[in-house]
Amino acid sequence: MSQDILLYNSLTRKKELFQPLHPPFIGIYVCGPTVYGPPHLGHARPYVVFDVVIRYFEHCGFKVRYVRNITDVGHLEGDCDEGEDKILKRARMEQVEPMEVVQRYTREFHAAMDSLNVRSPSIEPLASGHIIEQIEMIKKIMSAGLAYETNGSVYFDVPGYAKNHSYGKLSGRVLDELLTYTRELEGKEEKRNAVDFALWKKADQRHLMRWPSPWGDGFPGWHLECSVMSSKYLGEPFDIHGGGIDLQFPHHECEIAQSVAASGKEPVRCWMHNNLITINGRKMAKSLNNFITIEQLFTGTHPLLKRSYSPMTIRFFILQAHYRSTLDFSNEALEAAEKGLQKIMASVKNLLLLKAGAATSSDVKSLRKKCYDALNDDFNSAVVIAHLFEAARISNAAYAGHETVSAEDLEELKSVMNLFTFDILGLKDENFAQGGKSVEQLMEIIITIRNRARKNKDFATSDAVRDELKKINIQLKDEKDGTTRWEMG
RNA sequence: GGUCAGAUGGCCGAGUGGCUAGGCAGAGGUCUGCAAAACCUCCCACAGCGGUUCGAAUCCGCUUCUGACCUCCA
């Protein structure tokens, strides 16, 4: 199933035909979370987006190696010597070991990803497990003459690198402007230039997360782990590097510089950056303290939440926007997503009950191609969903008797719905999952009794049954033919 | 201050030169004992001002506003 996929490359600022370096294999690296706090809505976006990217690549027949790291070494809070390791800070706050913080939030992150139906990456490397490789990379950069040591810390020489290479090409920075406007921070005396960045930081005596190195005890710099782990598992260069747009500078720019300095090779063919989730017009971020955790969304326990929202509502909400647009959080938007998702799920069930007619009265045949076209155009999941709504409309209209669908087209409709809704967009029917066999049998009994009451015009009883069930999230639907269907949710 | 993105109907959100995006909300109708759901119909927007063009939400210029990045961040 080969497709011509256009991908927007941040490096060239245009859409390019995606061609893997070594077909049918694809190597993709996505920046993972720093595990120093509970995962929030902002984290959900890149991982949901890239989950769909990978599902689609695999559907198209590619063999994907997907690497997504866990940052667990703790980077400095500020760009200065007095900066405190953020994992360490959290650990002190909670009176626990740093490793405990790391493991707890890693587990929370995994649980959140599972609930959102985000599949695990092929490899999930830890920064702390690659200290030796990071030290080796620093040595290479030093022998290339592009890093220097000061007081047990090692810094990357950005102006030196920029003499022969383009520093800023990914993010559109101009070095001279950076040199003029980069904020002056305390502790800069160790650096030759404000734009230089740390490859290795000396650990002071209180610092618990520390490793021995040729320059003394310390810990690796902020950008190094991604360069090291991506090249280790995917080679150099590899196909796609993804992450949030807020990482484009300086993080990804520095990754390029490090790799080029160490190996002389351009590390990445295509850079993909997802845009951010905003709340009241501002980006949702830990640093702005305006985030809603994924757990809070599921339970509705946050002052800004009117109620709880299910995991698939969150996933659908994210996929209803194109990944390069900002996506604004609001209760109204989430409620709309929930309704829309329910509509699609209900139509999938209708499809199973639908009887084929002689001919098809709507355009079913073009749906599949339209969905492929949308995905091939830089993963436009929003447009795919619009087409799924059209499929839902046809399905429901046929169920209501307003349209007919031939046997062949009915199979096509089912196939398209299943493929794009479940396999590629990775949505799940949450309601269906809740009812077991015995629940179905119980419902059958309840419905039979209620219908007996309705037959006797005992509507007080029949309505009471329906209302009570509604309270525990079970919806009864009386059909024209006298049967009653039920749904959870 | 610099760089880069945006500004789409009540809300969310696609769309880069001509053809209905879509969803949610709202109005009317069909169906129903009543509901819910569903279906049908309606609501036809593109920040402002110029320009290019037979034709612009879409291209160009200016203005206003917003955001991201320039410090950790998905």
Could you describe the 3D structure shown?
- There is one protein chain.
- The chain contains 17 helices and 15 strands.
- The longest helix has 23 residues, at 331-353.
- It is α/β, with parallel strands linked by helices and 489 residues long.
- The strands form 5 sheets. A 4-stranded parallel β-sheet has the order 4-3-9-10, with helices on both faces. A 4-stranded antiparallel β-sheet has the order 5-6-7-8, with helices on one face. The chain has a 3-stranded mixed β-sheet with strand order 12-11-13.
- The chain has 3 domains: 6-274, Rossmann fold (3-Layer(aba) Sandwich); 279-431, Isoleucyl-tRNA Synthetase, Domain 1 (Orthogonal Bundle); 435-488, no CATH class.
- The protein has helices at 41-59, 86-94, 98-115, 131-143, 158-164, 175-181, 224-234, 248-263, 294-299, 311-319, 331-353, 367-376, 381-399, 407-424, 430-434, 437-455, 459-471; strands spanning 6-9, 14-17, 25-30, 63-68, 147-150, 153-156, 197-202, 218-220, 238-244, 268-274, 277-279, 282-283, 327-329, 474-478, 484-488.
- Strand 9, helix 8 (248-263) and strand 10 (268-274) form a beta-alpha-beta unit.
- Helix 1 crosses helix 10.
- 45% of the residues lie in helices and 14% in strands.
- It binds one RNA strand of 74 nucleotides through helix 1, helix 6, helix 8, strand 12 and helix 11.
Layout of helices and strands, plus pairs?
Layout: E1 6-9, E2 14-17, E3 25-30, H1 41-59, E4 63-68, H2 86-94, H3 98-115, H4 131-143, E5 147-150, E6 153-156, H5 158-164, H6 175-181, E7 197-202, E8 218-220, H7 224-234, E9 238-244, H8 248-263, E10 268-274, E11 277-279, E12 282-283, H9 294-299, H10 311-319, E13 327-329, H11 331-353, H12 367-376, H13 381-399, H14 407-424, H15 430-434, H16 437-455, H17 459-471, E14 474-478, E15 484-488
Helix pairs in contact: 1-10, 2-3, 4-7, 4-8, 7-8, 10-11, 11-13, 12-13, 13-14, 16-17
The chain binds one RNA strand of 74 nucleotides through helix 1, helix 6, helix 8, strand 12 and helix 11.
